[in-house]
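Weekly structure sync, notes
Attendees: PL, DS, HV (note-taker this week)

Item 1: DUF7144 domain-containing protein
DS walked through the input record. Source organism listed as Actinomadura parmotrematis. Sequence as pasted into the shared doc:
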Amino acid sequence: MATNMAPGGTPSASTTHGRTAAHGRPTSGWLTFAGLVAVVLGGFNVIDGLVALLKPTYYLVTEERVLLFNFTAWGWIWLIVGIVQLAVGAGILAGQTWARAAGIGLAVLAAFGHLVFLTAYPVWSVMAIALCVLLMYALTRPAHDSVAA
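Item 1 (cont.): predicted structure, written out as tokens:
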């Protein structure tokens, strides 16, 4: 495996054999991918929440056909979940261990939420559920002590 070398033959500050010099922990491209997916999914959920709050007629069904709550409640739920997912995505990219656990929990919560919200906008919900499953995999695949590359 190649090592990044600084002038003079010493290892550079960026990486040495897949380990970050700053943390001494292995890096993982999966965690970088997971952080980016969490940010994208959070952005999608923020948009979903804003649409539900500001233009509920955009959805394919009326409020009577949405399970559990009305569009205003779903708007606030998706807005809050999305904002938290954006923060968790940033935490994953920053190498925070808590963010991996929170990311998995939020992905499970969002997947079930989109399953319940499926009748309102099926294509969007199916896409969001697929991203949630992909995020769960990307967060559980790397070693426990890995950080984003």
